[in-house]
Amino acid sequence: MAVIEPKYTVSGNVEVLVGVGDGILIVDEDGVQRVDGEAVQGPVQKMVVSWDGKYLAIFTHDGRILVTDINFKGVLLEYNCESALPPEQLAWCGLDSVLLYWDDTPLLMVGPRGDPVHYFYDEPLLLIPECDGVRILLNTSLEFLQRVPDSTVSIFKIGSTSPAALLYDALDHFDRRSAKADENLRLIQSSLPEAVEACIDAAGHEFDVSRQRTLLRAASYGQAFCSTFQRDRIQEMCKTLRVLNAVRDPEIGIPLSINQYKLLTPSVLIARLINAHRHLLALRISEYVGMNQEVVIMHWACSKITASLAIPDATLLEILLDKLKLCRGISYAAVAAHADKNGRRKLAAMLVEHEPRSSKQVPLLLSIGEEDTALMKATESGDSDLVYLVLFHIWQKRPPLEFFGMIQARPLPRDLFISYARRDTLSEKLKRSYKGQDMVHHLDVFALVLVAIELLVVIYLIMVVKMCYKHEFLKDFFLSTGQLQEVAFLLWKESWELGKNPMASKGSPLHGPRIKLIDKAQHLFAETKEHTFESKAAEEHAKLLRIQHELEVSTKQAIFVDSSISDTIRTCIVLGNHRAAMKVKTEFKVSEKRWYWLKVFALATIRDWEALEKFSKEKRPPIGYRPFVEACIDADEKGEALKYIPKLADLRERAEAYARIGMAKEAADAASQAKDGELLGRLKLTFAQNAAASSLFDTLRDRLSFQVSGIVVCIFFCLFYGRKASVVGTFMKRNRDCRLSVTDNKFVSVALVQVV
């Protein structure tokens, strides 16, 4: 059986190759597929996939080793091992060869051309495949077997005349002060960049430090004569080799090749070092390669806390701070959390004091039981979310009186708590629940109604419990601080919330508790001199609710509660209960003008014109007869309106009223008596479609303008002959009944100024 990783499969899923019978099955999450082809002939005893997922090595039942691509399109290599016994281990050595190991036999390596190589060992071994070779783990040693890199072959092959070999040889002649060094450089002048690159690459694959140094010196020597080569290439390789040589040290024991290092990445290497508690080396490597040192220092600090149980907290704090300050922006809160986890709460509290970020500091203070400090830090940060976090935590942990004492002396937490307890009322939550029903608008209507009712019942019960708890807690807080008016406002608010109960119909027994809550609020308001208005308003609100509740009970109609005084009076009149309307008027001292307005429009609403006429004759209406006219016109009763239009004292109002019911002649007569030119112009526009009416208004306006012109002529006559202004004034008094338009008034005023 062999496993192919998802990154090497077309489907992106894990695939398992299973040798069954005379073939191979490919198993993935989508199903099972049988492999057909020449590559698989007969039972398979062992399989192994190359590290890049492109090739598959198969050991068959008859002792053959086959190498094929992962798609089984053809056999790339076939070798007869002369033994049908399956090997103990089958492994790839890079991508070039396959290793087979049997007990008590040499290690067999089959190369890419089918050439076998045997390696003899006197003790058992374990093969560990790598990307560029294989590790051979023995009882006493570790060996690494890999194909010799091409760059190394080109330099050190016997009789090699490659540019890299000549450059390496030129360095040797240069060290011996031989002129042949210049001759070698001239020979490879055109291939010098490739020679330098080969020396650098060969140095990277070398494990011997002295040979690395020699190859890098050869590359540097060639680079001096090559202007086109990248100057930082040697520096990068030197950096990489210093890291590799450091971890290859026997005391560290991580003999990585350069290909393994690049595949592993420096961050993973540092993680392995700190897990091996090699913090100093990990710190130096991270600093050398320019990586963040925070991970190393934090791991060291946590390990130090775990291993230093006998060291006092103060001493250990100094040791930790001496190292933690080396890294800017390090999380002291994470180290403090580890200290708390190890039972050193005092050390954790001292460490968290050095955390500059409140968002990390405050939650940890809460976790270690430092609520007072957490509230202080959250308040200093000015972050309302952090303050709420602390408040909710303390609210659950501390008794109410202790909680009140903690927030009373701090304005920001106190105000935020009050704001939270006041907002998010039941009505707002019910509105949101109504909006949430839009998501299911596509359901059947009857099913929607049932679901909505059940949802509202559940939500209401939950929200009532939660809101009552919040309000009761807030009331306790205000009572503990002597803020009686705030308690009264909360009681009044609760009464409104009861009124918005969607499950309780109007006129229900819930109105009894509502009135009691308002009475309590009124008594609390009365205890403070500054809230006399609120006390009186609460008293009248309770009185109005009682009257409205009685009206709903007597009329058996849920239409009174929570309506205004005016609406209550209007509804009583509409229902014909004039005695109840008069009672409400008397109880709440409704003014006569307001009473007349309400009754006029209420009677017009029910079209009781006889009662309206009788009401208008009881006494002279304090609001005049204009509301009677408007009520009749709004009800489209022109005949009833004619009963009241002649009673209008203002000629302009009378003319406009006639115009509204379409009586042009009467409107013209009233406007003519008023002698108002502007009014005549407006009425003309009103009857623009009536030619006769328009002509009549033009005639009256011209007549009025002629009278105005006479006045103007008189003024200029007096001005021309030097008459006194008193003469003009006398003339104006005689013609005071002549009303002027705005334009004429301005013209005459200018003339009068000139006379004076």
TrEMBL record:
GO terms for molecular function: actin binding. SUPFAM superfamilies: Putative isomerase YbhE. Keywords: Membrane, Transmembrane, Transmembrane helix, Vacuole. It is a peripheral membrane protein. InterPro entries: VPS16, Vps16_C, Vps16_C_sf, Vps16_N. GO terms for biological process: endosomal transport; intracellular protein transport; vacuole fusion, non-autophagic. This is Protein VACUOLELESS1. It is found in: Vacuole membrane. Its main location: membrane. It comes from the Eukaryota. The chain crosses the membrane at residues 445-465, 704-722. Pfam families: Vps16_C (PF04840), Vps16_N (PF04841). PANTHER family: VACUOLAR PROTEIN SORTING VPS16, VACUOLAR PROTEIN SORTING-ASSOCIATED PROTEIN 16 HOMOLOG. The keyword Membrane applies. It comes from Gossypium trilobum. Required for vacuole biogenesis and vacuole enlargment in dividing and expanding cells. Involved in the docking or fusion of prevacuolar vesicles. Belongs to the VPS16 family. Residues 13-232 form the Vps16 N-terminal domain. Residues 330-448, 470-688 form the Vps16 C-terminal domain. One of its GO terms (cellular component) is HOPS complex.
